[in-house]
From TrEMBL:
It comes from Paraburkholderia diazotrophica. The chain crosses the membrane at residues 12-30, 37-55, 67-85, 97-115. This is Amino acid permease. InterPro entries: AA_Transporter_AGT. PANTHER family: ASPARTATE-PROTON SYMPORTER (PTHR47547:SF1), PTHR47547.
């Protein structure tokens, strides 16, 4: 939340959590067992993630993992909510229709804010800032590209 943004959209503090809640509801509305199967497919893709992490020597893995714990918890929670949810969405009916969606909304907001607050500033963002600073320096120098490069 403290990162400089190249574009600011008014109301993003409301739009982003609303969009995440909508995505969570769509996942829930997919009905059990499809919800569980979708989540299982995501878990099956983990070896690909670990392959690329191993290729990079697990550089930054601990930081990435700390920032991703919310997702590790979110997926099984959504599967469980789908399983115990209302019969209208293929669940066992332990959560009555209407209340099930309210529970999904509440859990979604918890996971959304957990995810937002565990994000971190990456090397990519630092590199981007360096490039932008150089671009800004060139843009305000009044020199041609060739003159600017030779002056450096």
């Amino acid at each position: 939340t403290d990162l400089e943004r190249p574009l600011r959209i008014p109301g993003m503090g409301v739009i982003a959590p609303f969009a995440f809640v909508c995505a969570s509801l769509i996942l829930y509305w997919a009905k059990w067992p499809l919800t569980g199967e979708i989540i299982l497919l995501m878990i099956v893709a983990l070896p690909v993630f670990f392959y690329f992490q191993a290729k990079s020597g697990f550089t930054g893995f601990n930081e990435d993992l700390k920032a991703a714990w919310w997702l590790v918890a979110y997926l099984p929670v959504m599967a469980i909510l789908s399983l115990i949810g209302s019969r209208q969405f293929g669940g066992m009916g332990l959560l009555p229709y209407g209340w099930d969606m309210l529970v999904v909304i509440v859990f979604s907001l918890v996971f959304y804010y957990w995810g937002v607050h565990t994000g971190y500033r990456s090397a990519y963002l630092d590199e981007r800032d360096t490039i932008r600073a150089k671009e800004a320096e060139y843009a305000t120098s009044g020199l041609s590209g060739e003159e600017w490069m030779s002056a450096r």
